[in-house]
Design a protein that fits this description.
Elements lengths: L5 H6 L7 E4 L3 E5 L7 E7 L14 H18 L6 E4 L3 H4 L8 E5 L11
Antiparallel strand pairs: 1-2, 2-3, 3-5, 4-5
């Protein structure tokens, strides 16, 4: 069993967060260190540590992340101009919290995703 994360506590509302959407499958809340005018994290309510831990039984909830992202983008007024969805995996991918999550970023023109070295 994976270790509990801060996101698990946010899902259960044990610690305060600006939750913008929640249902039986996913929870979405504003990032505490936003990188864009709109920066929302969308997480499965089930703890899945990384993309590498996804199983076939998780396919429905992971597809739901995308439909919820589109709904939130419309609600936040960023759908028409566009937005970015990011899922990081492990250390080199930039994952900091080991509870799979999708970043929804928008509200301005976003820069390059990866800087060429």
């Amino acid at each position: 069993m994976a270790e509990e994360t801060i996101f698990s506590k946010i899902i259960r509302k044990e610690i305060p967060s600006d939750i913008v959407y929640q249902d039986d499958k996913v929870t979405a809340f504003r990032d505490i260190s936003p990188q864009a005018p709109v920066h929302i994290l969308i997480v499965p309510n089930k703890l899945i540590p990384t993309v590498d831990d996804v199983t076939e039984e998780d396919e429905l909830v992971l597809g739901h992340l995308f439909t919820v992202a589109a709904k939130i983008a419309r609600d936040e007024g960023i759908a028409e101009d566009g937005y970015r969805l990011i899922v990081n995996c492990r250390k080199h991918g930039g994952q900091e919290v080991f509870h799979l999550h999708m970043h929804l970023l928008g509200g301005r023109r976003l820069g390059a995703m990866v800087v060429k070295k």
